[in-house]
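User: Here's a chain of 212 residues. Predict its fold as tokens.
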Amino acid sequence: MDDGPRYYEELAAAFVRGRLGLTGGTDAEVIARGQADDLKLHKFKRQAELPRVKRVLGVLRGLAPEDLLDVGSGRGTFLWPLVDGLPWLPVVAVDQAQRRVQDLQAVRKGGVERLSAVQMDACSLALKSKSRDVVTILEVLEHLERPERAAAEGVRVARRFVVASVPAHEDENPEHLRLFDERALGRLFESAGATRVSFERVLNHIIAVVRL
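Assistant: Prediction complete.
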């Protein structure tokens, strides 16, 4: 019997608490309150984990970052599995959209203090150089008119590694401005100062692990 949507319960409940100013109650009770108040919780639904997300999480477990900056967190396709799957990891999420940042800030306000969120442009990060151990830039570069700026900012801010992903093939997304192959993606990060870039393909996506 179907017992309804499955959520990242800690995160969904924190979002509701942060938005409604609630305290107390179980996560299930708080989520039910959020549903009753028509809060949009679909972004917290557990979906079948995308292969590219699963692989990046595996890479991060191997890198064992002290902290992480996620550039362009969007709807949380990668961010929620990250925060759920690596619960010891402090994460700063940045996005250009104010509404998305406010949603992320509500999760922190509701009790998930390992997550912070700031509104920023991927091409101009208001962060100190070498201030984050690892930076992720996933499904972002193909959207940008000047992807070299975002790559350079990621390299500047990271201490050890940048992990990036892009589509490997043309698609019908009108927001995708360019297509990268390994050679072009490697040049992008090597020009920014990377010492080594390694690649793998995971179901129509290229993942780059950039060593600094």
